[in-house]
């Protein structure tokens, strides 16, 4: 849909900074989006504008009142973007920090001797927090194994490990190593069917850029994103929490409002840039659909993004023009399989007889930005069971093009022994 609408990809690319040129390297293709997506030009402008404002929230002056209104508007925008009509949004240090805080709060308020459940596919942001705070709170940690061949953890896998005494659960929405998206709603439903009052917290950091977040349909209590991975900037994270997670005793200042979860004065500019992000999805939705409702436009944008990114990953895997795809290159192995409908804009590969670090370096020399994932504390849980010490992650977003995919395929094809 995006690539079949004349001029739309060009209009999309025009809205992002450094879309085809690195300020340090020069011309380049950006396939490192899972490490941090490109930034909207409007976000850059908004950040600069708010960085110059000396006033803080909570004062009785015109500027302070305006800042409060901007934050309230951003929270309302996030509510529409993520379809969260209840609960609250707040900002923190990062997506990881917010996951730790939500998981910590759920664990220390859980009944002694109960259980925390999570999966082996999860990023350490949630796995580390769950293991640490389960131990401190005297809870048992239960790990649900993921499928090494598909790079997924399923609702059935959670069902096999669930017991009524599970009080806290974590779910990864999409893997930054395999690129596969999990069925959060189905997993949460299985958890609730066995333990209805369980607190369920979701790591949505990798998934958010693909534009399809629907918190109201998941039945969960917490959801975290990292805005720099969804077209905003570094320096903060955004969390949504349910009303019942909001109400749990949590870290806060003495005599502060009971529902407050933020520490100190937050950066109004960070909130304002989230309004820019939501506005971008709204703009895109209006160009791929005729719907008038804002949420419906955002859903249309998310659908179009997913469809186009699937088109790009299919081109990468199956080939484009006269170039063979990664699956047809004998020297390339694709993690989680060439035919995997759960894939979200990411293909991880290993090149036979060429160290992954060298592949990344050789691609970089040709102006193609990718990234190595090593079997370390970030990715070892996925790579070690596959017998891999590392892999090359090729991650794209909807502003990438088929021509850029062709450049990558030509470069990887040349690495054949």
Automatic annotation (TrEMBL):
Coiled coil: none annotated. Its EC number is 2.8.1.7. PANTHER family: CYSTEINE DESULFURASE. SUPFAM superfamilies: PLP-dependent transferases. The gene is csd_2. GO terms for molecular function: cysteine desulfurase activity. This is Putative cysteine desulfurase. It is an enzyme of class 2 (transferase). It comes from Ruegeria meonggei. Gene3D superfamilies: Aspartate Aminotransferase, domain 1 (3.90.1150.10), Type I PLP-dependent aspartate aminotransferase-like (Major domain) (3.40.640.10). Residues 29-246, 325-408 form the Aminotransferase class V domain. It holds the Pfam family Aminotran_5. Keywords: Pyridoxal phosphate, Transferase.
